[in-house]
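Format notes (please read before filing issues)

Several people have asked whether sequences and structure tokens are stored in separate files. They are not. Every record keeps both together, in the order shown below: the sequence lines, then the token lines. Line labels are part of the format and must not be stripped during preprocessing.
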Amino acid sequence: MSKLIKYLILSLFFTRIVLSNSLSYADQDLISLFPIENYNQSISAWINSNDPDYDKALLSQDMQQKRFEIFQDHYFGSLSPWNADYINQILKQSPPNDIKSIEQEVINNFSNENKPDDQIGYGENFRPYSKVWIDNIENNTNLSQFNSLSYNAANRGIAIDNLNARALPTDDVHLYSYKLAGQGYPFDNLQMSALWAGTPVYIVGETRDRNWMLVITPDYIAWVKSNGIARANSAFINTWTTTAKTKLAAITKTQTSLVDEQGAFLLQAYVGSVFPVMSVGNHIHLLVAAADSNHNAVLKHATVSHNEAVIIPLTATPHNFATMMSTLIGRPYGWGSLYFYNDCSAELKSLFTPFGIWLPRHSSDQVTVGKMVDMSGEPKEKRLSYLMENGQRFLTIVYIGGHVVMYIGNYPNPKDNSSMAMTYQDIWGLSPNPPNRRAVIGQSVLFPMLLQYPEDTSLVSLADKKYFQMAYLNQLPENYLLQQRVIDIRDLIYPDLLRWHRN
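Then the structure lines:
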């Protein structure tokens, strides 16, 4: 047999193998797109202005005021980063529950040393991180600065821009292998949240290169870029706090541009951020924090329209919920508020802010702020039945394990006219059991809780997850104010960081 014929036979053989492998891989795609267009995304289709309760207050004045007082307490009161007693409770914890010990835990968690394959961290170049990478971060963190912490009024600060809140002081991404379903981009394990401009903080420490600060926020403890934080003296804090307690505004249009009195751009404000109000007329006049040449906080003024902000608390009506949802629906899903988009818990936290309702940042904590009914031990049929019979429209949130949704009411299923529970949520996607692939939705949507999805009956219903806990936000749980004062630093520094279920 000639060499040419042998070469052609071998070429055809290997080409067949390559094609076979390629087709096999195509059959096992980890990601597909769920046809969300099958479900009407028009808010007016579900929340109609002709509904008899469209402008009816869903919360009593007394409960809404209680909720707003709790909200203010986290920003400007006894649970604020500007409160010395609260900060001292955090700084004075003993090992292994102190900041230094937990920061060391976080560093160890992100090291690739002695980790199984499914916990190896990769960079954006698809290569696993070396020991040098984590050692450099640890050295820059300078853990010794956390040896003996005590409150210092000079460490009070405020965010002067929107910032990425990170588990470690680095811009590097930390991704698990993209070959694992539900992993890889966009799930940067170091991304915790977004810190909105105007948020009070307490500065715990700085990296050796001064590029990062570890800050205590009203929600969590995280690393942020130093240039986005200004130190706030007593005069600034007194003016800011006094004004905010008199009148506080919430941004209601995402990416609202704030400019000062000279017309200079200050920042873009997102839904979820709040600012003290100087006066209200045809427009709303806000106080905005900026930095002077020494990076100390100074006051600026900005004017926004009534379409861009509201005075808190906004009355909790279906009409007002529809208005808030209209500025958020359809925005891309943002893991840990990546790119200043929302994930599931950030979406609800932002949505409820104009109503003066405080929600913690993370989904597992959000169901603790209302009276909770736990149906986790029940089958999915009973779970859905209970939700549809007992859910309070717009004021019931449902936690299903790493994911949280807002119940908005019962509606006819357009496919068979049966009754279904409609929710509003920001969701990455659905998965089968075992979760070896994802049908990606990847945005904030109106999406029903069904026993199964006709588009792909192999996908697990959101009503059939490990947890099914409902929290009624029109009621406070027993001992709520007491439980808010129980400080778990580990939960503040990395709440379920490496254990979040990626819906």
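For reference, the curators noted about this record: The chain has four domains: 1-31, 34-59+329-493, 77-232, 238-311. The CA atoms of residues 123 and 292 lie 36 Å apart.
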